[in-house]
């Protein structure tokens, strides 16, 4: 239900509270999830989750419209499902990155959120399905395939699970402008873009790096693939890679000055690429910069949310209007030495190659207006052109922790799961020595949230 917000003015109306702060009206709600949409869980820690996991929704969002009863309706999508960090898995004798999937058959899902009378309620939920109408999962795709993150899927006892060649880690959603039956979604694994039948969840077309999409998309950092998607009035599809691409295997040292946006024309299958200049001053490293989501205003203008770890340790989640009108398609532009543009550390050097970056205008930093969730995952704009709507997900209502950690050489507890390994029998080890350390799941009670920020003027007037 609508959560309280203490600001300068309080306007009370039944269970709802809204507030003006610096001429910005803020509403915030917990997304209520009916029990029928909870994720069944029968694993090791099932006694801690008697109803299963509360479904995570809000990784991406788009505005649908007003229902006959006046409810504001949004489509929202969840990510790959309940997951947690895990020790590296000893795959064929080699320590390999892994991820725990305590509900391994969960199918990524989307649904409608209705906001009315002080409540935001998930009203429907549809699972994604392959061409034969079989539910897909969010488990990692096979190592070596295009778009693999290189992770091994494990269950909650740290035993290996099967890879899923059709697995998706969904992050964005929008409506096809030619036929509203269809939706467009994007994914962090491949990264992939997919067109789906919104009535059934069936994937009718999947766009893959190296086939329909530029191969450079596959150089995204692991789990930093397509994070946002938006469909223009003429039905072109803009997708944002979440962070800078790892074009040379040196992403942690990279001084890249932009994140790639890709504009797909489904009619011609042509793809254009653009350089979005993130707020470099806000990050200790270029690799830390992240995009949250996109929403189309026009053919060239979009709302974009930026977020990530900042150099000063403070959280910032700025929202911008971006414009592609004068930006350069960088699809075939290389650095002077023939390398990718991400290897160029100076923006002026990139511009000297004839590149015009995406234009941007700052609207608001939602952290400065009370936003509490760690992440801003979905964004939409209401028809008044003033009200920004932002969602977070709830990570399926649980967190994980390393229990009975060993101590390192300095006597400090080793609390990162990836510092350990686990063999095929499920035995956890530290530097080759068997230990009693384990990764446990605990409920958080956290809900996905949806917030409304009504600006003093239309976004196009900034």
From TrEMBL:
<dbReference type="InterPro" id="IPR027372">
    <property type="entry name" value="Phytase-like_dom"/>
</dbReference>
<protein>
    <recommendedName>
        <fullName>Phytase-like domain-containing protein</fullName>
    </recommendedName>
</protein>
<keyword id="KW-0732">Signal</keyword>
<feature type="signal peptide">
    <location>
        <begin position="1"/>
        <end position="21"/>
    </location>
</feature>
<dbReference type="Pfam" id="PF13449">
    <property type="entry name" value="Phytase-like"/>
</dbReference>
<feature type="domain" description="Phytase-like">
    <location>
        <begin position="59"/>
        <end position="396"/>
    </location>
</feature>
């Amino acid at each position: 239900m609508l959560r309280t917000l203490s600001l300068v003015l309080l306007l009370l109306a039944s269970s709802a509270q809204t507030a003006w702060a610096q001429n910005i009206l803020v509403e915030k709600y917990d997304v209520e999830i009916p029990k029928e949409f909870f994720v069944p869980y029968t694993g090791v820690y099932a006694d801690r989750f008697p109803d299963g996991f509360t479904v995570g929704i809000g990784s991406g969002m788009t505005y649908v419209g007003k229902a006959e009863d006046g409810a504001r309706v949004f489509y929202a999508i969840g990510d790959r499902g309940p997951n947690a960090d895990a020790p590296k898995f000893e795959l064929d004798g080699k320590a390999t990155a892994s991820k725990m999937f305590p509900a391994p058959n969960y199918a990524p899902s989307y649904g409608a959120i209705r906001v009315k009378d002080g409540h935001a309620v998930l009203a429907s939920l549809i699972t994604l399905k392959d061409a034969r109408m079989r539910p897909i999962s969010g488990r990692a795709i096979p190592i070596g395939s295009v778009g693999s993150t290189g992770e091994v899927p494990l269950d909650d006892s740290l035993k290996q699970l099967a890879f899923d060649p059709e697995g998706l880690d969904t992050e964005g959603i929008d409506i096809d402008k030619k036929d509203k039956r269809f939706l467009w979604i994007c994914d962090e694994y491949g990264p992939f873009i997919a067109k789906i039948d919104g009535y059934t969840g069936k994937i009718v077309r999947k766009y893959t790096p190296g086939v329909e999409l530029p191969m450079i998309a596959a150089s995204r950092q692991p789990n930093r693939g397509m994070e946002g998607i938006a469909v223009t009035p003429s039905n072109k599809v803009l997708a944002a890679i979440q962070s800078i691409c790892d074009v040379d295997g040196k992403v942690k040292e990279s001084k890249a000055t932009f994140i790639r946006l890709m504009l797909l024309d489904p009619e011609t299958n042509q793809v254009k690429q653009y350089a979005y200049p993130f707020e470099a001053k806000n990050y200790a490293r270029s690799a830390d910069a992240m995009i949250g989501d996109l929403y189309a205003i026009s053919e060239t203008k979009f709302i974009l949310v930026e977020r990530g770890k900042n150099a000063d340790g403070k959280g910032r989640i700025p929202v911008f209007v971006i414009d592609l009108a004068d930006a350069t398609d960088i699809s075939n532009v290389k650095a002077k030495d023939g390398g990718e543009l991400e290897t160029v550390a100076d923006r002026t050097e990139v511009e000297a190659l004839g590149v015009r970056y995406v234009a941007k205008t700052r609207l608001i930093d939602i952290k400065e207006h009370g936003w509490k969730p760690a992440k801003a995952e979905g964004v939409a704009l209401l028809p008044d052109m003033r009200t920004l709507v932002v969602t977070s997900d709830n990570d399926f209502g649980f967190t994980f922790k390393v229990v009975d950690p060993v101590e390192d050489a300095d006597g400090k507890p080793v609390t990162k799961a990836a510092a350990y390994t686990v063999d095929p029998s499920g035995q956890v080890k530290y530097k080759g020595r068997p230990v009693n350390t384990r990764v446990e799941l605990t409920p958080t009670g956290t809900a996905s949230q949806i917030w409304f920020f009504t600006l003093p003027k239309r976004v196009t007037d900034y």
